[in-house]
Amino acid sequence: MLRIEDLTVAYGDIVALHGVSLEVAAGETVALIGANGAGKTTLLQTVSGLNKLRSGRMEFGGASLAPLSSADRVRAGIAQAPEGRRIFPGLSVEENLVVATSSWRRLGKSYADDLAQVFDLFPRLKERRRQLGWSLSGGEQQMLAIGRALMSRPKLLLLDEPSLGLAPRLAEEVYDRVGRIRETGLTILVVEQNTVLALAVANRGYVLETGRVVLAGSADELRRSERVREAYLGR
Amino acid sequence: MADLIQLLTNGLALGSVYALAAIGFVIVYSATGVVNFAAGQFVMLGTFAGVAMLLNAGLPMPVGYAAALIAMALFGALFYLVVYLPLRTSPVVTVIIGTVAIGITLQNAALLTFGSWPFRLPSPFEGMMIEVAGAVVSVHALAVVATTAVMIFLLWLLLHRTAIGIAMRAVAQDVKAARLMGLRVQWLLAFSWILGAVLAGVAGLMLGPMWFADVNMGDPIALKAFAATVIGGFGSLPGAIAGGLFVGLAEVLGASYISSAYKDLIAFGIMILFLLVRPQGIFGEPIQDRG
Ligand SMILES: Nc1ncnc2c1ncn2[C@@H]1O[C@H](COP(=O)(O)OP(=O)(O)OP(=O)(O)O)[C@@H](O)[C@H]1O
Ligand SMILES: [Mg+2]
Question: Which ligand has the nearest atom to the CA of A42?
Answer without folding.
Answer: 1
